[in-house]
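ok trying this again, last paste got cut off
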Amino acid sequence: MDPDPGATELDSSLGTPEDQTRDEPDHQDQDQDQDQDQELLLWVPSGRRLISGLLGINIVLLGAALVAGQAFNPEGLKHQEPQVFMLVLMGAGLIWMLWFLLWARKQPGISPHKDHHAGGITVILVLILFSAASLLLYVCRIGYLLSVRECNPASKVLSPFIEMPFLSLQTYLLWAHSKDCIHRHKIITRSGLMLILSADLLLWLNSVMEDSVHEEIELEKQENFHFSNVNSSETDFSDFGGNSTLCQCSTSPVCVAFRKGFEILYPFHIEFYLMAGCMVYVMWKNVGRRTGPGHHVTQKMTLRVIYEGGIIYGLVFGALVLVAGATVFILYQVWVSQHQFRLTAFLIFYGYHLAVMPVMSFCSLAGMLVHRLERRAHEGGHNPTRSLDVMLLVAAALGQLGLSYFSLVAALALGTSTPLADLDLSYSLLSLLELILQNIFIIEGLHRHPKLLAKRKERSSVFQQLNKKVTTPTQEKATAVSLLEENMSALPVGQEHDGKESWTKRVIQEICAFLILSNIMLWVIPAFGVHPQFENGLGKQFFGFSTWFVLVNLGQPLSVFYRMHSVGALMELLISA
């Protein structure tokens, strides 16, 4: 039995005594290989993370099977097993959060270290915004479910009353303790965090499934009734059982208002659980972690950086993208339901994206070139937040990348015989280019050390002075080494180098500002119901309506989350430029 619960964390961060006494110049390559192996093993649940990791995997798999069964065969689960499982899981998470907030966090030495990369001010503000929108959604959902409670099971009506305190407590937990590296009650803490993480993932999956059912019903209505209005076809919802929106809303305008508010706020609800799950995962990885004294990096407020940096062009052109995107969004929503303007709605959607995405690709490429010219060193050391950011960027981009490649396959098989098919193919190709270039630009920027280039040049100049005094006595050598360390520690943090920092910093900030505003607009458009890929394009013709619908519903939520997550990563690049 291991006498020290944190031995595995200490071994991975500090190394064994033999490693510390090893001659570094003779074994530098071996040390680099060992560091790479350790980085690969950090994602594998081992040691003290094994129990909680296996617990989370089994909970998520069981919950995913129940949610999928409810979506594809709602009549087969007669006792509302998915809703009951979610309620039990959220109840267990509530119990752990109350235990931690009311008792555990008050214990001495509970969190001796902080991860200052986790829970940045931008991420916390966005999380609070999504949390407030989700709470409003629960109010609308409670009002709607109470209006149609006769056709809904008790577990569905009870669910918002449990989700509201679960979401509220989780928001406070992440706001107050997302930076904590907890060092007491590690097994209980890891297990509790894994319960919350599993609940977030399953609630997100359930939300995506429900939203998919809503859109499928709307599409089938448009297919079968030739774009008849919603009120006249609402009576046909009785053919689709098992979803809350299938109940007929009463003639009361209050019920209709609650339902409309529920539909408008739904995207924020989906994004909250993804963001909260990511932050809970970082907390889980930081349990028992020890950070060095130089781990803290002072962060500036984003608005202050924009004001002092004099960012103009990125904000101006980004604002133009926002205004044009808002206009396109409104026109699309108004015209797509009218048969005579339907083609025009598709044309303005594709035209807007075909104009914006090449500019975004060019900005990402220019940012990559600036990174090469500046030649900053890579930031070393294990950082769970940075590793998660990179993994999420790559994983979330797979959604749009997959849809683009499926569209390319359909184009090769069917050809492009209509203008809309040509636009859809061009949109897919540009999406591939833009996502790849933007990912490279962001990932390279996240791994660059903010100030290491200036320090490296200062270090080389000091070493050159030391090499001229090879024959100095031992005492003078010791004095020179101490002066070297003093010069290194006293080096100004914001020191410029060779006149390059002024223009490279400005270019990176301008590019980040433009990409932030552009990604916000590309997040808003699909998040609030603009999905022309469902109804138009080569994929629907080649793969069939049902298969293409499943593919789009798997890729579209990931694409929406990618845009939101890239905004957070670009804000970090803007601050640290």
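PB: full thing came through this time. The first helix runs from residue 7 to 14.
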